[in-house]
Amino acid sequence: MQKVMKPLREVGIVGYGAYIPRYRIKTETIARVWRGEQAGNQLPVKQKSVPGLDEDTITMSIEAGKNALQRAQIEPQKIRAVWIGSESHPYAVKPSGTVVAQALGIAPSNTAGDFEFACKAGTEAMQAAIGYVGSGMADYALATGMDTAQGRPGDALEYTAAAGGAAYIFGPAAEAVAVLKGAYSYVTDTPDFFRRNYQHYPEHGNRFTGEPAYFHHIRNAAQTLMDELNLKAADFRFAVFHQPNQKFPQKVAQDLGFKKEQYQDGLLSPEIGNTYAGSSILGLTAVLDKARAGDLILVVSFGSGAGSDAFCFEVTEKIEQRRQAAPLTGDYIKRARFIDYNQYARFRNKIKK
Amino acid sequence: MDIPRYWRLRHQRYHLEGARCQNCGQQFFPPRAVCPICKKRKIQPIKFKGKGRVYSYSVLYQPSERFEGQAPYVVAIIELEEGVKLSAQLTDVDLDEVQIGLPVEMAVRKIYEEGESGPIVYGYKFRPLQF
């Protein structure tokens, strides 16, 4: 059985856009509240991004979508699908995609819907967009991964649960800044992290989230895709993995044979935390900001529940002219306004009134 | 804001859709059915670019019920590049950063939530030019 997934029609990324809110909190600041004198011990990231009071997955998807449209340089109405992957959709029932499609000037001749698969909801939307364009049903489709992740106060997740994400417009390969060489998805029933209906905060399986969940799925997805495409780690200029902290993605990269210079440019979690459905694909925007024609990029997501999507892209010469059409991911990372725990508690609705 | 009104105004709220009088060229926001200058009804919709400057502003410390939890915040009169003025909340800004003449750009943000179970109202705000 051929495992690699590739559409009949060649497809690529014609536009991409990042968005990260401007607020940051240092994990030391969080640790001082909950760990006292042990505040400096083994913090998973340096700092994380925090959404403003008036930001949510819909507003941030609009921001990233605008950036992707500026780079794609196409009429918004040519986009025939608006799919938003997130675990923090503002409504339980009412699609985020309709608001985003309307605000970006894409509506009404499009499909719109929301994807949910923990941290891989964004790449799930990307797989669907690739299939939609690749089948010829549409010339362009917009796939977004965006989250305003929540962590229970004092829980391990509070140190990393961040906000941000990225939007990708897929279209014909001839117009692309990066052409899809192949994709592969690997999914099993693994209950490492979940949130039940009507619950505000998710639950997680502590150490169980590591080997049987994150590492098993990413390793399988990445290795299978590389084997199917007859590629080895050294063939790639960049590799990007889901980033729940700064340790896991570095370990899985090394296990798969990648060197620091291949994964460091896409590793954003030390600066912004884990942006969940936005995590690996935000790393991909940072890499596209630096890539040159001919570079191969491997990007592998991980979503609890659990599964991984792996993609191989080859960058084209169109990247040089398009990347400057919108703010770079590094610009968003640099515009950091630090807040204290009191402001953070207010912004994240953690104060009972 | 009631649901029909929110729905009716979505083009204004999401992408600053205003109007231009085809007779005298006057532009306005929000759009009007009759030109206030020449009184003609030859009105055409246009989208403003969403860039401008703070013309004047005020800091709100005592907001109405719907905006509770947001105070203190800034409401400004924005003069768009096209010359039209409108009022809007400022966002992504510290109070001491705000000054007359500050270059700003439009962003779609959450304006307020209609209680715990009602609709979430999105619309334009302005923020200092980012990059």
UniProtKB/TrEMBL annotation, chain B:
The ChsH2 rubredoxin-like zinc ribbon domain extends over 12-41
- What Pfam family is a match, any one? OB_ChsH2_C
Residue intervals of the ChsH2 C-terminal OB-fold domain: 48-108
Q: Which InterPro entries match?
A: ChsH2_C (IPR002878), ChsH2_Znr (IPR022002), NA-bd_OB-fold (IPR012340), Thioester_dehydratase-like (IPR052513)
**Designated name of the protein:** Zn-ribbon domain-containing OB-fold protein
